[in-house]
Design goal:
The complex is a heterodimer of chains A (117) and B (115). Chain A has 117 residues and is an all-beta fold. Chain A has strands spanning 5-7, 10-13, 19-24, 31-38, 42-50, 53-57, 64-68, 74-78, 87-94, 107-108, 112-116. Chain B has strands spanning 3-7, 10-14, 19-26, 33-38, 44-50, 56-58, 64-68, 73-78, 87-97, 100-105, 109-114. In chain B, strand 9 and strand 10 form a beta hairpin. The radius of gyration of chain B is 14 Å and the shape is globular. Classes of the chains: A mainly beta (117), B mainly beta (115). The A-B interface holds A 4, 33, 42-45, 48, 56-58, 90, 92, 100-103, 105-111 and B 32, 36, 41-46, 49, 51, 90, 92, 94, 96, 100-108.
């Protein structure tokens, strides 16, 4: 079974631009979560989508948004990029997608490394 | 709010020696705890998780962790380190706020194996 895939793997943008990152979950997984990883702030949860609806949300400004399609693929969008948005963005999917987070395992993709100049 | 603290951002051990990575949690309710590993240029991989079924949890690659409520700890151990264990390790806890659930990670511990 193919793992979680993220595209692109690397991206360079300039301040003020917007960016869209894509995540394809493992086949059959219905929940997709997004995380931001930076040296300063570590790993931080952005949001989770299930059945095309945002179910859980972290503490990020509205510039960060996402969506999920009927095939469970998800996209994350960051508008008006800032230097501090430079990070590794990780996507994770989980099988059942239902029930609390501890009830099943999240599988992570390799991430998209975003550099904002 | 639930949180985890990892003691030691860098740990070095000799090949064949005991690996001990420390994680303490803060939670007013029974916590659900995880250990993840991240190899260079890769995503995170689950090593093991504690969901209150058993206090000693065995994971992949020979790792295990023991939940100690009295010490609010969930330290990760491996009896004999291997060169392939060199990676960054993250402890995490499920935190919940008015039904909004998320995984909260520690700051990570980079493990170096000395040949």
């Amino acid at each position: 079974k193919a793992g979680v895939t993220q595209t692109p793997r690397y991206l360079i943008k300039t301040r003020g631009q917007q960016v869209t990152l894509s995540c394809s979950p493992i086949s059959g997984h219905r929940s997709v979560s997004w995380y931001q990883q930076t040296p300063g702030q570590g790993l931080q949860f952005l949001f989770e989508y299930f059945s095309e609806t945002q179910r859980n949300k972290g503490n990020f400004p509205g510039r960060f948004s996402g969506r999920q399609f009927s095939n469970s693929r998800s996209e994350m969008n960051v508008s008006t990029l800032e230097l501090g948005d430079s990070a590794l963005y990780l996507c994770a999917s989980r099988p059942a997608g239902q029930g609390p987070l501890f009830t099943d395992t999240q599988y992570f993709g390799p991430g998209t490394r975003l550099t904002v100049l | 709010a639930q949180s985890v603290t990892q003691l030691g951002s860098h740990v070095s051990v000799s090949e064949g020696a005991l690996v001990l990575l420390r994680c303490n949690y803060s939670s007013s309710v029974p916590p659900y705890l995880f250990w993840y590993v991240q190899y260079p240029n890769q995503g995170l991989q689950l090593l093991l998780k504690y969901t209150s079924a058993a206090t000693l949890v065995k994971g992949i690659n020979g790792f295990e962790a023991e939940f100690k409520k009295s010490e609010t700890s969930f330290h990760l151990t491996k009896p004999s380190a291997h060169m392939s264990d060199a990676a960054e390790y993250f402890c995490a806890v499920v935190s919940s706020n008015f039904g909004n659930e998320k995984l909260t990670f520690g700051t990570g511990t980079r493990l170096t194996i000395i040949p």
